[in-house]
Structures are given as C-alpha cells and as structure tokens.
Regulatory protein, luxR family (Micromonospora echinospora), 975 residues
Amino acid sequence: MPMGVTRLVGRTDEVRTLARTLTSTRDGDGRAVFLVGEPGIGKSRLAAATRDLASATGTRVLHGRCGAVGPAIPLRPLREALLSVTAVLPPADLAVLGPYRSALARLVPDWAVGDPPGPQPSDHDLLALAEGVLRLTGLAGRDRGCLLVLEDLHDADDPTLAVLDYLVDNVGRQPTTLLGTLRADAGPALDLVRAAARRGACRLVPLGPLDPDDLRRLAGVRLDTHPDELPQPAIDLLWAGSGGNPGVAEDTLGELVDAGVLRPTPTGWRVGRERVDDPAALPTLTRPVDRLAPARRELLSLGATLGPVFLVAVLCQATGRPEREVHEDLADATAARFVRPDGPEPDRYRFVHPVLGGALLARLDPAARRRLARRAADAVTVVHRGLPGPHVRTAADLWLRAGDPAAAGRLLAEAGRRAVDRGAAEEAVELLQRAGDLLADAEAAHRATVLESLINALTEAGAAGRALGHAAALGDLADRLDPRHRARLHTALAWAATTAGLAGDARRHVELARALLGPDATEPDTAPVDVVAAHLTACGGGPDRVAEAEAAARRVETVARAAGLPAVAWRADLLLGELTRPRDPAEATDHLNRAWSVAVRQPAPVWEIHSLVRLGDDDALRTGDLNRLERAHRTAARVGALHARHEAETRLALHAVLQGRFTAADLLTERVLAAATRHRSPRAARHALLLRATAAAHRGRHRAMTDALIGFRRHGGDADRYAPWTHGLIRLFAALLREDRPRALHESTRAARADRDHPTVCPLAGRHGLDLLLRTVTDTDDPPAAPADDPPGRLRWNQQFRLFAHAVRHGRAGRADEATDAVREAVRVAAPYPVAGHLGLRLVGEAALTDGWGEPVEWLRAAEDHFHRTDVPAVAAACRSLLRRAGSRPLQRRAGVEEIPGVLRAAGVTPREYEVLLLLAGRLSNREIADRLHLSARTVEKHVASLITKTGQPDRIAVGRLAATGAPPGAAAQV
C-alpha cells in the first residue's frame, strides 16, 4: 500500500556526531567516518541525512556508490563522486591540480591531457590517483568544506579500496569529511576500516537496531498517524519481524497492512486479531523458515511444539543431541531473530513472535506434528519427573496433540486436583471438565474419580448448585462402581449441599452414603460422611443442635486423627471452632489452630486459606484486629478460592458493620449477595440479607432493616435458628437507636429466650454484653450482676458493654472513682466500635446524671455529636434533652453552627452571637452592628452580654479579640 515518506527516525546520537564532524571540516579539520551495519539498518538513510545537513550549511557534497549489479566498473564510486563536481569547478580551478589532473583523467576522461590512461592502473598510478582525489576534495571544499560520501563499500573493487586506504590516512590535510557506508560482513572493506580505526585514522560508527519506541515512531511516520495510536500487537509483530531493523520493519509494515492484519478504522488503526497468528498472511516474517537446514528446522519445530517457551534440556531429550550442539543451533537461531533467551536463565528460550513457531508447524503434515508432540510429551515427562507445577498441563496438551486423549485426560484430571488443593477453584473446574470429556470412554472408576474432584472444585468455586447437578452422572455410573466409591461421591455431594444451605439435599446424600457403606462399616469408613452430618446438625434447628453437633464433631475428630484422615480431622476442628466459641472462645481458638496445623502439614493451601479465614475472624472477635482476616481474604481472591473468599467477605462485612464502616459493609454484602445469586447458594444469600438488615439497624434505618429481614425469610431464613441474631443484634439495636426503651427490653428478652431455646454460634447477640448493660441501666432497684466466669463476655464487642454496666453499678454503689475508671476503660475498648461505644456513653451518661457521679455532660456531648453527625436523630435529641436536664446548654444544631470554632460551640455560642463576635473585632458600636445585621441595638446589646458571660471575658473589647483566635483563655475549662 502507498505509505508516507520515511524521514530519519532515531539515530539522534549519530546525527549529532556527524554534525560536529562537518563543523570541524569547515574549519579545515578533515576526518573519515564509516557507518557499519546489517542490510536495512539505515546506513544509506543516515548518509542521505548527512548530505542534506551538509548542503543546508553550504558544504560541497560529492557522492558515489559501489554497485553489485551489472558488469564491474573499476573505481565506480570515485567516478560518480568526481563527475558530480565537474560541472561546478571552472577550468581555471582544475589547473591548480597540476600533474594530478592527468591521474584524475582515469576517472573523468574529459580531463585527459595527451593519450588516455590504460584500463588497469599501476600502483604508482593509484597513488597519484588517490592524491589527486584528495586534492580535488580540498579544492571543492575551499572556504566551505567538502563531504565525500562513498556508499556500499563492501562491494568495492581492489583499486577503490587502495584509494580509500590512502584517503583515510591523509584526509586530515584537507577540509574534507570522508563518509563511507558498509555492511558488517567479513571482507576486505571491513578489514580496512577496522585497521584504520585501530590506528586512530577514522571513526567507526556501528548502527544497531531501533528500540521499540523508535520502531513505533517509524510506523507512525509511515502510516501518517500519531505513534501512540498504533495498537501494541502490531508493534510486537514489527519487532518480531524486524528486530528493530528499520528497512525490514517498513517491509513488514506494508505486509501487515496489505494482509489486513493492521487496518484503518474510523477510530484509528486496529489489529484484525484473527490474522495475527496466521503464518500465511505474513510471508516476510516466515520466509526465513524455508531456508533452515533440516536438523535446525526439526529442533525449532520441537520448540514450537513445546509452546511459546521451551527448555534446552527438553530439546536435548527429545532429539538425543548433545547439549553443546543444541546451544549452538539456538545461538544461530537467535542471531537470525527466530528465538531469543527468555530471562537470565541460559536454558530457556522463546520465539521472537508466536507466528514464527506457527510457520514452522504449518509446514508439517498432521502425522509429523503428532510424532513431534509425542516425542515432546515423552521428553517433558522425563525431564520434569512427576510433572510438577505447570508441566502437567504442558504434558497433557502434548498428549492431546499426539492423538492420545486418554493420556491427556488423566493428566488434566491430576492438574485439576492440584488446582483444587491450592485453591484455584475456577481453574480446577475448567481442567476437570475437560478431563471428563476426554475420559468419556474410560473405565468407570477413572470417570468417577474425575467426577468427585469436579464436585469438590465446584463447591470450592462457590457453585454448589452446579455441583449438585452432577448427581445424574453418578446415577449413570452407579452399576459399574463399588459401593465405597459411590459413597464417596454421595459424601462430596452432601458437603456441596451443606455449604449451599440446601439441608434437604444434604440429608438425602448423607443417608445414601451411609446406606452404601452398610451396617458393618468401621468408624474410619464412616468418618468422612459423619463430619458432614455434624456440620448439617449444626446448621439445623432445635435446642440441642449445638450440643449434638459438638459431640458428633468430637467423636469424628478423635477417629480421624487415629486413622490418619487429615481432611476429616480438619473439617471437624473447623466446626468445633465455631461450636465452642459461645461457651469458651479460648477453646475455639485452639481448635482453629489445630485445623490450621493440619492444613500446613498436609500441605493443602486451600485448607490453610479456610483456616486463616476462621482464625482471622477469631482475631476480630477477640481483639477487633482485622489484619489476619483481610490477609486471608486477599489470598483467597488472588488464588481463586471463591468459596473461601466469600466466607471471608461475609465475616469482613459483619465486622465492618460493628465498626461503623457502613460503606465498606454495603460493598462486601452486595458482592456476597451477587455471588450467591449467581451460584444459587441460599445459605450465602441468607447471610448477606442478614448482614444488610444488621447494617440498617446499626444506622437507625428501620424501613431498610425490615425489608432486609423480609428478604431473609423469603430466602428460607430460619426464624428460630437466627432469632438470637435478629432480636439481639438487629432489632434490639434498632429499638435503642429509636429511643424505644420498652421495645428494646422486649427484643432483649426475646433474644435471651431464643438463645436458650435455639442456641446460636454467634456470641455477639446481646446476652453477654448489650443485654447486660440495658438491664443494668433500666433496673435501678436490682440490676443484674455480670457472671463471674463468662468467657464470651471477654470478646471485645461484649466487653465494652460489660464495662459500661460495671460503671453503672459502681456509680449506684457510691464508688464514683471506680465508676469513672470503668467508663474510661469502656471507651478504650469501644474504640473500634463507634456506634456501640457512643450508644454506651448515651446510656451510661443518663445513669451518671441520675446517680450523680462521673462526667455525664462530657459523655452526653460526645454521644450527641456522634449521632447528630451520623443522622440518628432520636438518640441525638435524647442526649440534648439530658444535657438540658444537667443545666448545660446543648450544642446549636441550626444552620451555620458548623462555622463556629469547636471551643466556642462547646461554650454554647449561637450562630447569631458568632456573627456579632466577628463584628466586634472591628470595634463597631452596637448601632453599627445592628445596622449591618438588621437587628435592633437592644438585641445586639443582649448578644454582647451573652458573649461576655459564655466566654468569661471582662468586656466587649476582649470578646472582639476572640474573632482572630476563636478560643478564649481558659475556655476549655469553662466549657
């Protein structure tokens, strides 16, 4: 296609060097410079730019080129150069040459005097000729400098090189720059200039490839577009095809455009991706493949079979050739821009561009490609024993291309199992589905093993609904499997249903698994299904469910440890960590640490991630520290363990609610709900809606709370099982934030009754904390005492309320100092929980005000400020009412109050009084202030008197000074 004229791109340093050389030449200092590089590298283009630069500055230019086409013409570049100057030099100037004019007649016949010279000059003639050329350049460059350009010197004949050798050594005597170009191929011309450079007679300027940025600029010039608008895949192809050689890059660019790989669109140049890897569309890139020797082509074809990156060790194994020979061939292939080293390791190579590997394989028939794939698969298996890491997938792909789908399927199944173990759930699902397809005709046992792994992978991917859809496949295999294998599959399906909250499906598969194992099964035989049944019991209803599930989990854990069943022991310890926390958080932590230890010893990264999620949640409950839980969440997201990630997000969302970070809580909750909807997981959906209701309650948004609880029930939420949470952590909180004390007491009673009838594994639902505080401040005659030994009460969320309750009891007993200390400690413990902490201050502030102890005004002001800022008006109003009861003016909440400095606002200064204060700074009279504020002078006088009283200043002048600082001396003490 026609493209724009190419200007010189890159070569900034080289142009600068040549420009300085021309300047020196005009000052009479002659020099010789040679541009050396491969074909197409830009020698002629740089020489042309130098000629243009010389012409622009008035320097005389002589130009000649050696020719490789047609009959050889002796001294051709010198003839061309001198002919270009004959038209501009008058005969009188030529007379200055004296006897050298006759020598030059060999190049310019018109200058001959007497008989013309013979066809072959003698050495004496060449010496005279060289001196004549040198003097002629000096004559041409008199007062202006001369540039003599001799191109393609690698094609020069011997006489030309003889003259050149003389010119290089003597050009310094003339105002002449000798600029030569030649290839970097071995030959007499290169030998000559290298020898001259070594003795300091000339300068050698090697031209290397353009860098990718310059290559992009070159393409932009050719396509008449801004370089940044060119797509990166096109630049990658240019680099692969040219290695930075601008001449080759231009040919490749034209080919890309002509083949439709790079095409113009209304929005700029775009790559047609369907053509990028088509070798037939890019002959410039792939043509060198046809010139490869057979042995080297086979070697590179094996490399292409292995993939974009291949190892020397595998090539040696596949070909049986010594490592030294293989390295030599790869070094040559690197020089020819077929391959390049991949990183610092000398054993790794990759093709410069995938299209080159494709071109090699495209030249083979299908049978030959299969044979290469088989050799490569065997070699990979030998070199990488056990096929660790990605090598198992590489081998599977090679066996598939070798025509052995069964071998490929077995390896993909192994890769899928490994992916499940490390937590890469979605990758595992894709691998195992492919394995199942390839093993469709394999033995039933192989297919069942793959199916079991796929069910586990789908469960870990949070897609338990899809996992249960494979129950039909189990039916197809049932008559060809032994009962134990079928029981394992039903156990996997039961676990999938349990994680999704599908209790009916889970119970059915548990019963089927137990029936298949039969009445004579040993405890180790039934342990895998028994631990699933224990989880199922814990998720059920009834007053004894927690105790029954705990007893079952303990039995299973004992059996699993004795029988060496790490997966069962791990699941049992995770369950015990949940079940024992309401009774003994320390024991719960011990169980979670044991589960983590099992995961590390196995090793099973996905088990470790789940364990860290639970341990992180444990940290947050005990201390409020989210670091470990957040790290586990990031790890689960990074490796693709979606089930663990969603479990972490559910827990993070709850702690975000408790810590008053509602935006983060909303984001996490909606993410969990979206995943639950996508994967048809009722359990996750119920948890998300319960979290949404909790967040709404802790914000005082009653309507949103009610809507979320309705949604929770519509998704199958068990009202009895979750009653301690819904009444103790949701409705109780909502009632307190609406200042509905009777409703709060009612919800607290219902939460306590529900926890007795339907024990919960959530120890935050009120019985151990908020319920105690509420009943302590309400029952003034006989407040309940905190249990002496209540381990869940030591969880940080519960501990803040227990400390507030202790303070109230101390205060009523007349122990004011102990009461105040307890409040201070409660405030410290409540630091992560701003809503709960300020609610505690509101409740304890009222009790302190009633009983006459502590600092109720300070506590109520802090609570009022928080609930005003967070838009919980009922509590804020109650605090203001209590402040008025205490004889302290509440902070003003009218428009403009936020502009009043905090200390003045705390002193009770109103917005209008603050306006008066600002004008007092200007020493205005009451009348002047009244006129500006459209008030009466009497009203201004009242405001000034009020300001003097509130700020404790002696007079109006002192009050006026406060306008600059906003803080009167001792104001803090007065407030």
Summary: DSSP finds 50 helices and ten strands in the chain. The beta strands are 31-37, 60-65, 146-151, 176-183, 203-206, 262-265, 268-271, 309-311, 339-341, 348-351. The chain has five domains: 12-206, 212-276, 444-665, 678-683+692-697+706-885, 897-974. Residues 678-683+692-697+706-885 form one domain.
